[in-house]
Amino acid sequence: MESKMNTREKILATAAFLFQKNGYHATGLNEIIKESATPKGSLYYHFPDGKEELAAATIKLMGNKIQHHIEEELAKNSDPVKAIKEFILDIAREFNEKDQENCFSIGLLALETVSISESLRKTCIEVYDMWTDTYYQKLVSSGFSSERAKELSLILQLMIEGAITISLIRNDDTMLVAAAENVPLLLKNK
What we know:
The protein contains 10 helices and no strands. The chain is an all-alpha fold. The chain has a domain of 129 residues: Tetracycline Repressor, domain 2. Helix 1 crosses helix 4. The longest helix has 25 residues. The chain is elongated, with a radius of gyration of 18 Å. The mean pLDDT is 90.
């Protein structure tokens, strides 16, 4: 971890890594404390409600980081087909360049916790809605009707998240590349 990170950031970064690597249930607070090299009291100071609060903060942090990445990538090209296709191919490139343990999928954490935590379920919905709205805004600004953009942005979100999940399971980028290649078919009619 970078020495410039504050204690809360260290805890969140470590939690994100461990939740992704081991899962929510298999990651203990003591493991997060040990790996982040932070005092136990710091975890409870920043997250007094414990593991669930820490997971929600991790989801929000990673959701915002991913949101920023989506916005940056979509801004690179005014054509939504090219922008979205390149964004998905960029995810595939990152998937190939990095150890998959360093990839963060909110979907995996959501699937593991949705039946046990209403607050984590709602946090995941907020993040997914934020991402979907970004696709929506890109489509509307490119001339798609609001109704059509709403429908397509949801399909894009489902397609991208599904491709990420299957890519993680298969440990290859085939599904991400397939999703990218099908963006022109999905967005062919405004």
